[in-house]
Amino acid sequence: MRAMADEVVGRCIDHITSLDRQPSCGDVDAAELCRALREPAPEQATALEPLLDSLFRDWIPRSFTASGPGYLAYIPGGGVYPAALADFIANTINRYTGVWQAAPALVQLEANALDWLRDWMDFPPQARGLFTSGGSMATFNAIVCARERHLGAEIRRGVLYTSDQAHHSVLKSAKLAGVMPDRVRAIESDEGFRLRVGALGEAIAADRRSGLTPFAVVSSAGTTNTGAVDPLDRIADVCDREEMWHHIDGAYGAFFYLCENMRDPLRGLPRADSLTLDPHKGMFLPYGTGALLVRDGAALRAAHEATAAYLPQVPHPEDYYDPSQHGPELSRGFPGLRVWLSVKLFGTAAFRAAIAEKRVLTLEAARRVAALPGIVIDAPPELSLFAFHLTWPGATPADEDAATRALMEQTTRRGRVMVTGCTTHGRFLGRVCVLNFRTHQSRIDALIEDLAASIREIRG
User: Fold this and answer.
1) Secondary structure, 3-state, 64-114
2) 75 lies in a domain?
3) What CATH number has the domain bearing residue 444?
4) Do 93 and 45 meet the contact criterion of CB atoms below 8 Å apart?
5) How confident is the model at residue 312 (pLDDT cuts 50, 70, 90)?
6) Is the pTM of this model over 0.90?
7) Could you report the per-residue pLDDT of 207-223, keeping only the tens digit for each?
8) Number of domains observed in the structure of the chain
């Protein structure tokens, strides 16, 4: 076992220490490779070393280098190393953490980690949380809580409101929670890609006149398209007045609330009834680390509480956290350990400093990108993401869309940074998102150089 572990850890460390030299995006045109990989289950055992050879030499490189410093696409993560050790420990000890009685001390560590998230977001002491596989499952559980609190069995009359810039998981989560697409209203966003509060109020009033039941609003603390932050405080006012549930999708942006100077654009975040967090984004943990906070912990428990004859019947004190009573899973892993161990080893200050650095790098990157020939900034950075397009005299919108798409592709092909775009308000925009803890000044310099070179090629 030690020899196997040494072999695996050695290759992982070699991989991590070479991230700054790896292409920002490997060759993912791999349809033929994937067909060649199809095989039946082997009847006999295979040695570890050749399997690791194929994995690290042939297959891992054929992917986005999402953990590398040049990954400025989508919403970066990073994957801090202690979290991998935590997963190794959790998988090795294989303790059951679904119910409190099975591993009370281990469940308490997870509860501590959730309490840290609660305190960082200025949620009240009675708030409770849940670790999930990502933001999508966090949003799903939040909508279930809102549905149970405000609709009960009358689901069909319920209406949920969100922005036309909302993450696609909102519509999917609503459907899974029994709220069909014809009961989800995509409210128009303004020129800054933020939800229009006036239009929200009008839509709620119209649905009430039609005999429907408006029950929840999902706003964004940093959209995936442009990084826009909805007017959270004003939306909270609407929800208070209308007696509706306010869920904030903070998967990308909520962890910027750790920085004192970033609290103004996120004003109103602590007023949410529920909040999606993605530690695999703003805390740089491995993918598969999401979280949900619910202001009234009793609402989270009421939505998920259940028992069975085969489960332990000994009640535990109310101030103890039981994962199975606050989420949909009975069988589960131990996701809280990766959060707990990483925070204990690094401390809150290290996470705060890393997030603050990404903000500084983004402001400089946006300033330098705006100075490149033909670049128009469509969405300045509210957090650490900004969007833009490429233009020139006489260019049509279709010309600009094609050129901006080419700019993203050609810049990525140069291998030092990976950037992606989006289509919003009928236009294709390029995006840069700085949120990898390994991204520092030198990679921003590479971004500017490669964008400039690509612009020269495209504009001829």
Assistant:
1) ECCCCCCECCCCCCCCCHHHHHHHHHHHHHCCCCCCHHHCHHHHHHHHHHH
2) no
3) 3.90.1150.170
4) no
5) confident
6) yes
7) 999 999 999 999 999 99
8) 3
